[in-house]
Design a protein that fits this description.
Residues 142-294 form the Gal80p-like C-terminal domain. By secondary structure, the protein is of the alpha/beta class. It contains nine helices and 18 strands. Strands 17-16-15-14-7-13-12-9-18 form a nine-stranded mixed β-sheet. The protein has a six-stranded parallel β-sheet with strand order 3-2-1-4-5-6, sandwiched between helices. A hairpin with a 2-residue loop joins strand 14 and strand 15. It is globular, with a radius of gyration of 21 Å.
């Protein structure tokens, strides 16, 4: 694909993840010759024009404003790549017109509300022969790259077992027991925004990218916080309470392709008290061990935890980086055509198939063979 890649951005308002993190990652100095924002599209004329004006002033060139159906921005002959960052329940409707226009696209995780929607998007991708990149940037993390190198180099011998323990903290007020009023959509199961899909899912990709896929899965779950207290913008209770619709604790176990036994534990809603570990990922080999840990974040797609090899801290390039560095690495891989180095719609479908198996295991109370 000729450079720069001309980008049309769907869902780029003046606030939120797209505005504060995803889009700025495209505007980093190292990508100036590789990407150029040429158009934006939102749900209303007012917001589209405000976004176009803001980013035109920031970038120093004219940006077109579209609103309504994404077929309009996709039909723009100047647009090479359409970046779609909208709520999960709007993702399929937003991206399918883009694919039908045979435009390459980026789609933010969770890539639809369910496995079925992800599969529908994947089928369209293969039908129209377009390239895809999805918001599973964990494998671009310097931590993941280093740990994968250590595993593949035989630094700890044959992998025998691994345990991942992650935390979704209370403070963002995204899930029970305390939920901000603007996040109430997480309490509607039909929206596809659960702790399993939205948070655990993105971390599964770097896990399996490093150690291989699961052959079997057996899951248990519990709801320790059955109700949500709704908070206003100042963090005060509004007086409204709503029921939780999905579990807040999961234990997922199984056997990997290598024969190693793996366990993933997710805890939700604990406060980030001093000393509470957000991430502890231990990989046990025949000849040693690797430990990845953080007291600030469980998310390998936005943070760089510490890495220890046989108890000794490992220094590596990019260890002091941040979420923008990780996103930039994904954009660089896409621009270079290095498909194995970034995640695609097929990777997203694989993650969702595994999450579906987790839910089946919970419903049927048995081990699921994948």
């Amino acid at each position: 694909m000729p450079l720069p890649i001309k980008v049309g951005f769907v869902g780029l308002s003046t606030i939120g993840w797209a505005a504060t993190t995803l889009a700025p990652s495209l505007f980093q100095p190292s990508l100036q010759d590789k990407y150029k924002l040429v158009a934006v599209s939102t749900t209303s004329q007012e917001s589209a024009e405000a976004s176009a004006k803001k980013h035109a002033a920031q970038l120093g060139h004219t940006i077109k404003a579209y609103y309504g159906s994404t077929s309009q921005i996709a039909a723009d002959p100047e647009v090479d790549l359409v970046v779609v960052s909208v709520k999960p329940w709007s993702q399929k409707a937003a991206v399918l017109p883009v694919i039908e226009q045979k435009k390459n696209f980026f789609l933010e995780w969770p890539v639809g509300r369910s496995l079925q929607e992800t599969i529908e998007i994947a089928e369209a991708v293969h039908k129209y022969g377009v390239r895809s990149i999805v918001g599973l940037q964990g494998r671009q993390s310097p931590v993941v790259k280093k740990v994968k190198h250590l595993v593949n180099s035989g630094a700890i011998g044959a992998i025998r077992s691994t345990v991942w323990t992650g935390l979704i903290p209370r403070e963002p007020h995204f899930f029970p027991p305390l939920v901000a009023a603007e996040n109430k959509f997480t309490l509607d199961g039909a929206n596809g925004v659960t702790t399993l899909r939205l948070v655990a899912g993105p971390q599964l990709d770097p896990f399996t990218f490093t150690l291989g896929c699961f052959n079997t899965v057996n899951a248990t779950a519990a709801t320790l916080y059955p109700t949500a207290t709704i908070l206003d913008r100042d963090g005060n209770p509004t007086g409204e309470t709503l029921p939780a619709v999905t579990p807040d604790h999961y234990t997922i176990s199984g056997i990997l392709d290598s024969g190693a036994i793996a366990t993933i534990i997710w805890r939700t809603a604990y406060s980030s008290t001093p000393g509470r570990r957000h991430l502890l990922w231990e990989i046990e080999g025949e000849e040693g061990s690797i430990r990845i840990e953080s007291d600030t974040s469980s998310y390998l797609n936005i943070d760089n935890p510490m890495v220890f090899l046989n108890g000794e801290k490992v220094d590596f390039a990019g260890a002091d980086g941040n979420v923008l560095d990780i996103l930039v690495s994904a954009w660089e891989a896409y621009a270079a055509g290095e498909e194995s180095a970034y995640t695609t719609i097929d990777d997203a479908a694989k993650v969702h198939r595994f999450l579906d198996a987790v839910e089946r295991s919970l419903e049927e109370g048995k081990t699921i063979v994948l």
